[in-house]
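pinned: reference chain
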Amino acid sequence: MVGWLVAWLVSRLVDSLVGWLVVGWLVCWLVGWLVGWLVGWLDYWLVGWLVVGWQLGWVGGWLVGWLVGWLASWLLVGWWLVGSLVSWLVVSLVSLLVGSLIGLLVGWLVSWLVCCLVGWQLGWLVGWL
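pinned: its structure tokens
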């Protein structure tokens, strides 16, 4: 009777560990990182690029473009052309940097949350079953 109980406990432990290691880590790495990557990519474009980065880029680009254009007009260079080019360059750079940073951080955070909340729990559940 004791041998059967020990064998059953060992099999439960092995099943739980195998379920956690195999299923948990597979779900963690495959689903967690995939969802994190998708959310990070969407966040990069929607929030980082279009909302935050684009707005900051336009404000910074307008200010820098206006300043450079004003200085260029004193040097008898076309202020509108120079100001517009510099403004567009600042918009693009700021949007890219802010969007990349926000997308990377949010994607990393979401992937770890999915990994911890879904992957490991599902692995324990499958191993236990």
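why pinned: The radius of gyration is 27 Å. The chain has a mean pLDDT of 66.
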